[in-house]
Amino acid sequence: MKPVLDVVAGIVWRDGEYLAVERPEGARMAGWWEFPGGKIEPGETREDALVREFREELGVTPTEFEHWQDLEHEYDEFVVRLNFFHIHSYSGELQPLEKQRMAWVDPSVPPALDFLPADIVIVEALHR
């Protein structure tokens, strides 16, 4: 049986565009693009994990957000259970604290970044 990772991911909106981040060098699946977030720690709520991950990765605190949808994706070595949130506002200044590249994506044009396989269905939904 494959290990299951419970993960939160935030879709940050600014002026009609959403934020994508590239997985940093040294990380599993480095070089792929994703929505910022990370693993839910034992005893943590999804909301607490979202706030903690955004502080650790991007130096901001989500202040207005709502749960959108969940999905499960099976990779060769593990299964990831993703909890997606729309983030409408945050406090602080976005900074790539893990030296990751960041990009604002316009959902009215076809996606050009190589997103993780688990995120493809979400990207497609955002670009409809």
UniProtKB/TrEMBL annotation:
Catalysed reactions, semicolon-separated: 8-oxo-GTP + H2O = 8-oxo-GMP + diphosphate + H(+); 8-oxo-dGTP + H2O = 8-oxo-dGMP + diphosphate + H(+)
Entry-linked CDD domains: NUDIX_MutT_NudA_like
Cofactor requirement: Mg(2+)
Enzyme Commission code: 3.6.1.55
Enzyme superclass (EC): hydrolase
Signal peptide (UniProt feature, chain positions): none
The Nudix hydrolase domain, residue ranges: 3-128
UniProt keywords, alphabetically: DNA damage, DNA repair, DNA replication, Hydrolase, Magnesium, Metal-binding, Mutator protein
Family annotation (Gene3D superfamilies): Nucleoside Triphosphate Pyrophosphohydrolase (3.90.79.10)
PROSITE patterns: NUDIX, NUDIX_BOX
UniProt cross-references to InterPro entries, sorted A to Z: MutT-like (IPR047127), MutY_C (IPR029119), Nudix_hydrolase (IPR020476), NUDIX_hydrolase-like_dom_sf (IPR015797), NUDIX_hydrolase_CS (IPR020084), NUDIX_hydrolase_dom (IPR000086)
Family according to the record: Belongs to the Nudix hydrolase family.
Record-given protein name: 8-oxo-dGTP diphosphatase
Originating organism: Pseudodesulfovibrio portus
Encoding gene, per UniProt annotation: mutT
